[in-house]
Design goal:
The protein folds into 2 domains: 394 residues, Sodium/glucose cotransporter (Up-down Bundle); 69 residues, no CATH class. The chain has 22 helices and 6 strands. It is globular and about 80 Å long. The C terminus is likely disordered.
Length: 630
């Protein structure tokens, strides 16, 4: 097998341009049909809270399947095998946690910003802290989502790097600015379908060349790629069942239960039932894409089983393997490489548009509205300006990433580092009514500190191959310019560095699997948060606003517990009082689905604080709640 040097043809660029054209047209379409509601910020930022579960489910799937996922996941299966498949179990667990705990918690508060809940539970300072962490995380991550895949595709296919980056940023900002959340969601639907088609095209053609999926599986199995049975408890091993189950679940709970990018989609649904349905649809979609990405990676390995392009030096990074494979097997079919290109950039478009829309929302809700009263028209125009601003910030971050190579790995690990402490913050909020604002603040700072410390240590003292478990690859059939055959087999010993003998004892701690960074941060944040809460005067549960905590053990699965035990587990929160007040509201004639759980709003008039309860007729088409003072 010889090195290939090919580039995209005319039809590939036609298909590629079609992706951006359709995405832009969707934004224009929703701008036109919503022109009568241009002065409604709720319609612009939240889709009028009338979205159906199906498009939201597609949008959730597409929003976190970035081009890094489309390009990187097949390479994961190629290099490490099928242990990554256990992440599908994490997706299912996270869907259940989202639907049964977090969606009811958020939905019944009638909030717009996820972090608005933290002010209701703790204080405005905790809300500002969480919002700031989210925005910094998103700007860095989205910048890399734009830059890294474009670089990989540029080096393999000849696609111009800065043109693709600029077009991606401009088109995303364009349709998000014009159409708001509705445009983002419906372009996500289109882009999710494109991503699946790209994978299917690669799998079908690869299997045709290799003689069928059975032969692909047989080759992959013979070289150790089919392996699901690593159950070791050693936390230093990169991927085991436990590291993926525990660490993966923690990471995805942080993503799907606490970030504005996702929660905003739950809250735009027309009812709580639709919100729950969308998250279960998303779990199915994520598992489907995982299977397609895995099959693509195994097909790619079977194709290069005796001539690995990376070890042969034909690609400079493992993320370039998939684009290289696409150009090899689909080049003879004009336009098909462009389909895969669309698949990769669909991931980028969906992630970028979701992110900048969410950043605009939290900036408006958490930083501007609390300090300045805005009309609906002013709110919409400020939202559009913020979308443009954050789109520019992400493009600037992409340019910065091209000059600071070390920032790439940091950005790709940032979600894991941040997820644990942030999940701890929200868990202290809804599950532990005695935690106070000081405990929440110090817990998050401590958790983030240890997560970042572990990550920096792992870059100084990288884990050895016995923990990474890179599988063997061969170059025995590669044809090099000056020889007839290349090196026989790539051995995993090649990964060992000469500095391994000088590794200090603490380097073993730094070998902790990346999947556990979030778990470590979560545990530290919870411990510190509780200690500080009790040292500074714990929050009295009986004084908490209604609806900010959850009677977890009142769930039907715990009905076997005696009532006295369940009341004890309320930890002093007067849930029976809240229920009585809610029942009295139902007697006014509204159905159970019309009522949002009791919520205490602080209405400050002449220096006094009055209590009010909120009702919501979302199913009947009324997007704004009516407030009934006591």
């Amino acid at each position: 097998m010889e090195e290939i040097t090919r580039s995209f043809g005319v039809w590939d660029y036609v298909v590629f341009g079609g992706l951006f054209l359709v995405s832009a047209c969707i934004g224009i379409f929703f701008a036109l049909i919503s022109r009568k509601k241009t002065n409604n910020s709720d319609d612009y930022l939240m889709g009028g809270r009338q979205m159906h579960a199906v498009p939201v489910g597609f949008s959730l799937t597409a929003g976190f399947l970035s081009a890094i996922t489309i390009i990187g996941t097949p390479s994961e299966f190629y290099i490490y095998g099928t242990m990554f498949t256990w992440y599908m179990l994490s997706y299912i667990i996270v869907a259940i946690v989202s639907a049964e705990i977090y969606i009811p918690l958020y939905y019944r508060q009638h909030i717009t910003s996820t972090y608005e809940y933290l002010e209701l539970r703790f204080s405005k300072y905790i809300r500002v802290m969480a919002t700031t962490i989210f925005i910094i995380n998103q700007v860095i991550y989205i910048g890399i989502v734009i830059y890294a895949p474009a670089l990989a595709l540029n080096e393999v296919t000849g696609l111009d790097l800065w043109t693709s980056i600029a077009v991606t940023g401009v088109v995303c900002t364009f349709y998000t600015t014009l159409g708001g959340l509705k445009a983002v969601i419906w372009t996500d639907v289109f882009q999710c379908i494109v991503m699946a088609v790209g994978f299917i095209a690669v799998i079908i053609q690869g299997c045709i060349v290799l003689g069928g999926i059975e032969n692909v599986w047989k080759i992959a199995n013979s070289r150790g790629r089919i392996d699901f049975v690593h159950f070791e408890g050693d936390p230093r091993i990169r991927h085991t069942f436990w590291s993926i189950l525990v660490g993966g679940t923690m990471t995805w709970v942080g993503t799907y239960c606490t970030t504005q990018t996702v929660v905003q989609r739950y809250l735009c649904c027309k009812s709580e039932r639709h919100a729950k349905a969308s998250v279960y649809m998303n779990a199915f979609g994520m598992c489907t894409i995982m299977v397609l990405a895995g099959l693509s990676g195994l097909t790619m390995f079977a194709y290069y089983v005796n001539c690995d392009p990376y070890d042969a030096g034909w690609v400079s990074a493992t993320d370039q393997l998939m684009p290289y494979f696409v150009m090899d097997v689909l080049y003879a079919f004009p336009g098909l490489p462009g389909v895969y290109l669309c698949s990769a950039f669909s991931g980028t478009l969906s992630t970028v548009s979701s992110g900048i829309n969410a950043m605009a929302t939290v900036t408006l809700e958490d930083f501007i509205k609390p300090h300045k009263k805005l009309t609906q028209t002013q709110a919409v125009w400020i939202s559009k300006i913020l979308v443009v601003f954050f789109g520019g910030c992400c493009l600037a971050m992409a340019a910065l990433g091209s000059n600071l190579g070390g920032i790439l790995n940091a950005a790709l690990s940032i979600n894991s580092m941040i997820s644990g402490p942030i999940v701890a913050l929200f868990t202290m909020a809804w599950a532990f009514p005695w935690c106070n604002s000081w405990g929440a603040f110090t817990g998050v700072v401590s958790g983030l500190s240890v997560s970042v410390w572990c990550y920096i240590g792992s870059t100084v003292y990288p884990p050895t191959n016995k923990y990474l478990r890179v599988l063997e690859r061969s170059t025995v059939e590669c044809v090099f310019p000056n020889t007839t055959v290349g090196p026989d087999v790539f051995t995993t010993d090649a990964l060992q560095t000469t500095t391994e003998a000088y590794r200090p004892p603490i380097a073993e701690m730094y070998s902790l699997s990346y999947a556990y960074y979030g778990v470590f941060g979560f545990v530290v944040a919870m411990i510190v948060g509780h200690i500080v809460s009790f040292l500074t005067g714990y929050q009295r549960p009986s004084e908490l606003p209604a609806g900010v905590t959850i009677p977890f053990f009142d769930h039907p699965i715990f009905k076997w517990l005696p009532e006295k035990v369940r009341r004890f587990l309320w930890c002093g929160v007067p849930y029976d009082k809240y229920r009585d007040e809610k029942e009295s509201g139902k007697n006014t004639g509204k159905t159970e689905n019309d009522w949002v759980d009791v919520k205490e709003l602080e209405i400050k008039e002449n220096g006094n604080t009055n209590v009010a309860y909120v009702t919501d007729d979302r199913d009947s088409g009324i997007s704004e709640p009516e407030v009934t003072p006591l």
